Amino acid sequence: MSSNSNHVDANTASAQALLASDTLPWHRKITYGFTDMSGNLLYCIISSYMLYFFTNVFGLSVGTAGVLLLIGRIFDAIGAPVMGILVDHTHSKYGKSRPWFLWMSLPFAIFVWLLFTTPALSGTAKVLYAGVMYILADLSYTAMSTPITSVLPNLTSDTDGRMQANSIRLVLGNVGNFFAVTFIIPFAGVLGNGNEQRGWSLAVGVYSIVAFILLIVAFLDMREKNIENEKVISIKESLKATKGNWPWVLIVVANLAYWTAFIVRNSSMPYYFQYNMGSKSLISFFNGFTIIQVIGMASVPFFVKFMHKWGTTVFFLAMTMVGQAWMGFAGSNTTSALIAWCVACIGSGSACTMFFAMVGDTVDFGEWKTGVRANGFLTAIGASFCIQMGSGFGSFIASMILSAFGFNAAHATQSAGSLSGISFTFVWVPVIIYAISLILMIVYRKWENHEPVVKADLAERNAKAEAAAANN
């Protein structure tokens, strides 16, 4: 009896020592952020300028370009869970997620460059080229971006370390977004010297080289923990990891609501400033201030120390809702509207940070509950799938409301009913949907309080597994 007790104590002590020593170095937190910086450096060019490039540079009709973008969105929605399953089926000396940065860095860079390179084709051949390159660029981005979230639970078991790494990741991701949406057009103009097609190809080519280097640096510095205990799991086992995983369900639904609200706001924003505020130039002006959200993202780890993860998420979602409502009350007062916009951006950017971090914690819960560690599948659904489906839902909701209120793009001046619809869509619909996400995060509190038990049990299991392996 005493021997058994000593054995248990030894395992417990080993587990505690494992938890205490499992810290993520700062240089690795930064290079982990390079993954999102690289992805945004290229993908934000696609998400912000693809339609413009297809119509104004590549030479497609707006109808054809719209169909291509719709097809690409369908592939996106399918690709996220499939990629998650592929990650769970990966077994290599580098781990499950890390090798995908090595494998996909070059294809991702090349396909995005080819997407913004106009070939000497015409007619159907040119349309096919555009469609194929758009789908390949989208799929290669999904294959590169899905491991960004799925690798985090394997970099460290320390939740504070994960939170810090995720915050750095999203701050650097915003830096990538800033350079993508701010400088690509003037850079293409300089390199093209009057030839837009040549300029875009060269500019995106330079961006692609930088993105490729960032991904390779991230891969070389990254280390996945406990990969010797990882095993290839089946699709059935991946699905099993969702059984009884209520924190994961809450994060998925709350994150889906978040992205739906976010896209409703962004989709209706150009209409609001052009028609309700009466100035099309305000669109770019206000968008330039979105970089301010990095302030909130960088401060997230400090808030978490005092308010915990669920409380921090609730706080920033509430802040977003306040900013949105303030926009509505600001009316035509540009200064007041700009302050409100900054408040909403800081809130939404910080809340986004929380969801990416917490979905990694649900991987631990799934393993604790079912014995299956499905990093890829759980994080793909909790992150990439939510973004893609939320984008689809958000755009659809915005378009349906605007249509119901009689919006007509052919009219330079909109009717009073149309203006009311635009204002309602931009200001109040996001507030309503953000509130759903906020309520779900209050419910999440129960599961976050249970995390110490989950972490301790998993550490003890790993210690026992290592001890058994050493004895064999």
Summarize the structure.
With 472 residues, this protein is mainly α. The protein contains 16 helices and no strands. InterPro entries: MFS_2, MFS_trans_sf, Na/Gal_symport.
Describe the overall structure.
The protein has helices at residues 2-21, 26-58, 62-88, 98-115, 123-150, 152-155, 159-192, 196-221, 235-240, 246-276, 281-288, 293-330, 334-370, 375-404, 416-449, 451-471. With 472 residues, the chain is an all-alpha fold. The longest helix is centred in the middle third of the chain and has 38 residues, at 293-330. The chain is globular and about 75 Å long. 49% of the residues are buried.
Unreliable residue runs: 1-5
Question: What does the radius of gyration come to?
Answer: 23 Å
Q: What is the helix fraction of residues, given as a range?
A: over 70%
Strand content: under 5%
Shape assignment:
globular
Looking at this protein, list some descriptive labels:
472 residues; mainly alpha; 16 helices; 0% strand; disordered N terminus
Topology, pairings included?
Layout: H1 2-21, H2 26-58, H3 62-88, H4 98-115, H5 123-150, H6 152-155, H7 159-192, H8 196-221, H9 235-240, H10 246-276, H11 281-288, H12 293-330, H13 334-370, H14 375-404, H15 416-449, H16 451-471
Helix pairs in contact: 1-16, 2-3, 2-5, 2-7, 2-8, 3-5, 3-14, 4-5, 4-8, 5-14, 7-8, 7-12, 7-13, 10-13, 10-14, 10-15, 12-13, 12-15, 13-14, 13-16, 14-15
Protein name: Sodium:solute symporter
Pfam families: MFS_2
Keywords: Membrane, Sugar transport, Transmembrane, Transmembrane helix, Transport
